[in-house]
Amino acid sequence: MVYAIVRAGGRQEKVSVGDLVTLDRVPGGAGSTFELPALLLVDGDKVTSAADELAKVKVTAEIIENLRGPKIVIQKFKNKTGYKKRQGYRSELTKVKVTSIA
């Protein structure tokens, strides 16, 4: 089994070929491809973590769709002062499919 740990949007994701992963928004439209930087590669019993060997590894992903996450409601309230504030936020996300690890 081959899988890689990649850096994606400030987080680390474990991916293998064919996986669907939701990441922070990546520039590009549906159908375009891009590469993710690998931090660790596991190929059966062989584990690669050396930086010079990982520079040769290419993890390619294809953008499936751009979407938005669920709405998060932020509320602030201070007692006895009449202060209350309400704010909403929806994160911009991208669903990608990992096409190859080479």
TrEMBL record:
Query: By its UniProt entry, which InterPro entries does this protein fall under?
Result: bL21-like (IPR028909), bL21-like_sf (IPR036164), Ribosomal_bL21 (IPR001787)
Q: Does the keyword Aminoacyl-tRNA synthetase apply?
A: no
Which GO terms label this protein's molecular function in UniProt? rRNA binding; structural constituent of ribosome
Keywords noted in UniProt: Ribonucleoprotein, Ribosomal protein, RNA-binding, rRNA-binding
Could you state one GO cellular component term attached to this entry? ribosome
Give GO terms for biological process: translation
Q: Determine the domain of life of the protein's source.
A: Bacteria
Q: Family membership, please give it.
A: Belongs to the bacterial ribosomal protein bL21 family.
Which PANTHER family does the protein's record reference? 50S RIBOSOMAL PROTEIN L21, LARGE RIBOSOMAL SUBUNIT PROTEIN BL21M
Query: What do we know about how this protein assembles, alone or with others?
Result: Part of the 50S ribosomal subunit. Contacts protein L20.
Task: Give a short account of what the protein does.
Answer: This protein binds to 23S rRNA in the presence of protein L20.
- Tell me the protein's name: Large ribosomal subunit protein bL21
Say which species the protein is native to: Crystallibacter crystallopoietes
